[in-house]
Amino acid sequence: MTSTRPLHLAAELAPGHGRAAPGPDTAARTVALARLAEAAGLDFLTHDDSFARPGLDALAVLARVAPETRSVGLVPTVTTTHTEPFHVQAAVATLDWVSRGRAGWRIDVSPTGAEARLFGRRPAPPTAELWQEAGEVAEVSRKLWDSWEDDAEIRDAATGRFVDRRKLHHVNFQGATFSVKGPSIVPRPPQGNPVTVVDATRPAARETAAHHADVALIAAATAEEAAALRAELHRGARAHGRDPGQLRVLLSLTVDPDAYEGGPGALAGLIADWHAGGAVDGFHLVPVVPERDLERFAAVTVPLLAGRGLFRTSYEGTTLRDHLGLERPESQYAAGARVRTGAGA
Amino acid sequence: MSTREPRKRIHLAAHFPGVNSTTVWADPRSGSQIDFSSFEHLARTAERGLFDFFFLAEGLRLREHAGRIHDLDVVGRPESITVLNALAAVTDRLGLAATVNATFNEPYELARRLASLDHLSAGRAAWNVVTSSDAFTGENFRRGGYLDRADRYTRAAEFLATARELWDSWTPEGTPKPFAHSGPQFRIDGEFTVPRSPQGHPVVIQAGDSPEGREFAASGADIVFTRHSTLEAGREFYADVKGRLARHGREPGDLKIMPGVTYVLGDTDADARERAAEIRAQQVSPQNAILALEQIWGRDLSGHDPDGPLPDVDPDPDSTLVQGRVRVADPVGTARKWRALSEAKGLSIRQTVIEATGRQSFVGSPETVAAALEEFVATDAADGFILVPHLTPGGLDDFVDRVVPLLQERGVFRTEYTGTTLRSHLGLPSPYERVEKA
Description:
The complex is a heterodimer of chains A (345) and B (438). Chain A is built from eleven helices and twelve strands. Chain A is α/β, with parallel strands linked by helices. Chain A has one domain: TIM Barrel. The longest helix of chain A has 20 residues. Chain B folds into two domains: 335 residues, Luciferase-like domain (TIM Barrel, Alpha-Beta Barrel); 72 residues, no CATH class. In chain B, 40% of the residues lie in helices and 14% in strands. In chain B, the strands form four sheets. Chain B has an eight-stranded parallel β-barrel with strand order 1-2-5-6-9-10-11-15, surrounded by five helices. In chain B, strands 4-3-13 form a three-stranded antiparallel beta sheet, with no helix packed on it. Chain B has a two-stranded antiparallel sheet with strand order 7-8. The radius of gyration of chain B is 22 Å and the shape is globular. The chains are: A alpha/beta (345), B alpha/beta (438). At the A-B interface, helix 1, helix 2, helix 3, helix 4 and strand 6 of A face strand 4, helix 2, helix 3, strand 8 and helix 9 of B.
């Protein structure tokens, strides 16, 4: 079995184990890494985050990186357990504005009692409930991003109207643990919906990934296992009425290119084989030491893949959705979309 | 006086044009209110003018009028802290101030986001602490509900105190120490994820003129953002707020008073007055005139002609017509004043609204405006100004090109940045010096 699907490559900037101490040099260090990845043509960069260990706010770090890069996608981890859904969606939409259409977010939960005590608002519920809530945050975020139709701003001097209020929508979302009235304060972001990434290497997150992710990250020991997980995610997406063609499944790979048998060149061989076999749509590299490992990956592995015609040699589009081959969704509140889905106003 | 004291230096900040009728959108030069390029242009202009900081307001719910989303003014803005982090990449010295609500946030997360901005901007972060009490805004949040006016400041004060505990929780050597806060509003404990940031504490701004607001500012803010833009009101406010500082063990210079002001420049004073009148007419469109009236009357006045006389009926004091903005304190009294103005000068609805609302603070040639700004500061009506341009993104260009050089010639404004942090621009002590001094 061969595949002609484009290969997608992403990398993690702030892996837990290789994390440098946060501080005044975080900006310069992260910009340097992002430029390295961008020169290699990677689809996107993730930046892990948690309230449970030292580090700056990941979305802030990538907003700081955005003006100093041009093409690479920027995907901070954003937690949904102790945060306000309305603020979270506004921040992600704003990252999309400041990066001119390169934003995503990797949804995560805060499962520990220690994290709950930092907020003192409620005890940590079971992880399954947290992922269900994360799914609701993803859903309300899409509604809020869509709550401004693309052409809501009209600047009509004749009638004195800046916006057409028929194209601004209350979302009236009622979830199990929160409700949001809407509309958003942020106009619809350049990508329509920034890219939603779910780390489905943890089984608890898999259902939320199938339902809400544009990109799901998986872990597997063999190509067969990866292919089975991808098929399972596709089935789940279909069950939620989604087009599986709009879900990318990337294998998360923690590698030390030096320690990897055969080094960064052999890593290119593994990536090419698994991708050609149709097991996954791409790979998410989690380096051990970002400065060292991303440099090797960009300098050796990626050129080998590009040389074999498997990976882009330059960016063709400008947005993260372009890189991933994902459509820019129409607002769910737009007249055309309502007719097609049969949903009411 | 035989010996002149050194002239008091002016502090300047740039307010990104607001989501209200001050911002003119029908002008052909009006650009996007949301594209990053607009923020970049204004911030770079402010930095070219050696301003102290760039200021972003906040909106948490779109305004509604008569149950419908208000459609006459510029609307739609980004989330402040995220834009400021991006602006940190395209500026070097300019302070970056975000307005963030203490009612609909939690101390741990917000303290972390502000400390992150301070790190990523190398010491240029500021936080304008605002509070909200309305259930209308609450409908967008988990917290929801309503806080009464007194509780808003109780929560804000404890919020700020808690944030400071978190910012102080790492040693200067870079070791996190566990924190525990237990108060009526917040009971939290654990470890903060962000090391001490370059400024120690981001600069704290407080906006609000009520007695509670003044006391809150005097107890711990670094800057007060006030609306008093006349000399008399400014001096009275200045004396009152500065007079409260000693009770909190603070020096007069520890708190800067900066009114938000508008300005219109022209080649001559007459030219500027003419331009000011044109801008007022753009700000108060016929539709906006009726709306301004409805906001006071609390009634549907859509049947009235904006070029005709004011309505005969009195305001409805219990109206819920307007949501998402501050209610006029005394609608009946305001209506009486407007009627008197209209009758005395023979003004239509629209002319009355133009005359009665939103006067430009400083109108004149660059020389006139520079002299007036200096007088305000020299006579203790202010320590500086937060300038609110009426155009996005070019509204600050002429001020920086024409007024800033005159202020520099007068010796009342810096000719270069001498420090790298916002605290250094403002001449504010480090929070740790303050502790050692005390």
